[in-house]
TrEMBL record:
Listed EC numbers: 3.5.1.14
Organism listed in the record: Ceratotherium simum simum
Residues of the Peptidase M20 dimerisation domain: 188-298
Coiled coil: none
Protein name: N-acyl-aliphatic-L-amino acid amidohydrolase
Length: 352
């Protein structure tokens, strides 16, 4: 056991709070500080540390605990280091102070998504090494940037590089949600993330007139259609106690853009949506529905994808599936309760 700090705080909690104070918040994450933080952890734990710059200023850090049988494929523990922006005025404490109250609650951006998991990986490895354990398989911990903006400057580039292939990953664990009970929950599917920008064009003019066929009128029609669908899904979730969040499609209007002056009717306006499609949704049919909503709004209304998952992501939970058999078998062997897995998104409702 690690000794507690002067205030009775476990060193892993102190480390967690230190990590939370690193401002890896978009749009300008301090990735340099993260890499330095992880290098120090590698040194303290006696782990290998590899830094792979996949794009300018975008480094994937890999901490490695070599196994005793290099012929075996490795275990990959992945986490992302970046966090979403904050509205500081809505926080009860500074989101980058990592304030801990008298009950032990810690307030910080990224506490759950997903810096806690990174520290859990590090603490688990520390404990196992202290206890003298050795394993046949090599364990890699990968810390990746830019996940919150799609991963295009992080994992997407990393998996195409020889450094990733050299890891020889045979089994990977990633993001999830904590369970307040003693059971462990596994999320075996993920909603398809679509970031959609709808653009409406129309006749410009002076704002003192009733200009016809404006971009705003047509955009309003599309927004109304999409938000009506949102309300339908919200009601479906609320009316069925057996449904989980990940079993329905969530939609949120996240950006409105356009205009040059208050007294000028703009020629172009756009609205951006974060859509999380449930695993059972027909993606082709939903894209056709988006097209239909735009066409119904009028001429000059189009949409484009900022991000688009093209295939449903569902892992089999049949015992014949090698991933599921390996995962569930460990819990059975150790007599740990495994909560009946439910389909649904592992992504956090407040972030992605």
């Amino acid at each position: 056991m690690a000794s507690k700090g002067p205030e009775g705080e476990h060193p892993s909690v102190t480390l967690f709070r230190q990590y939370l104070r690193i401002r890896t918040v978009h749009p300008e994450p301090d990735y340099g500080a993260v890499v330095a933080f992880l290098e120090e952890r590698a040194h303290q734990l006696g782990l290998g540390c590899q830094k792979v710059e996949v794009a300018p200023g975008r480094v994937v850090t890999v901490l490695t605990w070599p196994g005793t049988n290099p012929r075996l494929s490795s275990l990959l523990l992945n986490s992302h280091t970046d966090v979403v922006p904050v509205f500081k005025e809505h926080w009860s404490h500074d989101p980058f102070e990592a304030f801990k109250d008298a009950e032990g609650y810690i307030y910080a951006r990224g506490a759950q998504d997903m810096k806690c998991v990174s520290i859990q990986y590090l603490e688990a490895v520390r404990r196992l090494k202290v206890e003298g354990h050795h394993f046949p398989r090599t364990i890699h911990m990968t810390f990746v940037p830019d996940e919150e903006i799609g991963g295009h400057g992080g994992m997407e580039l990393f998996v195409q590089r020889p450094e990733f292939q050299a890891l020889r990953a045979g089994f990977a664990l990633d993001e999830g949600l904590a369970n307040p009970t003693d059971a462990f929950t596994v999320y075996y599917s993920e909603r398809s993330i679509w970031w959609v920008r709808v653009t409406s064009t129309g006749k410009p003019g002076h704002a003192s007139l009733f200009t016809e066929d404006t971009a705003a009128e047509k955009l309003h029609k599309v927004v109304s259609s999409i938000l009506a669908f949102r309300e339908k899904e919200r009601q479906r979730l609320q009316s069925n106690p057996h449904l989980k969040l990940g079993a329905v499609t969530t939609v949120n209007l996240t950006k409105l853009e356009g205009g040059v002056a208050i007294n000028v009717v703009p020629a172009t306006l756009s609205a951006s949506f974060d859509i999380r499609l449930a695993p059972d949704v027909d993606l082709k049919a939903f894209e056709e529905q988006l097209q239909s909503w735009c066409q119904a709004a009028g001429e000059g209304v189009t949409f484009e994808f900022v991000q688009k998952f093209t295939e449903p992501r569902v892992t089999s939970t049949d015992d014949s599936d090698p991933w599921w058999a390996a995962f569930s078998g460990v819990f059975k062997d150790m007599l740990f309760p495994l909560q009946e897995p439910h389909s649904g998104a592992r992504d956090l409702p407040c972030c992605h």
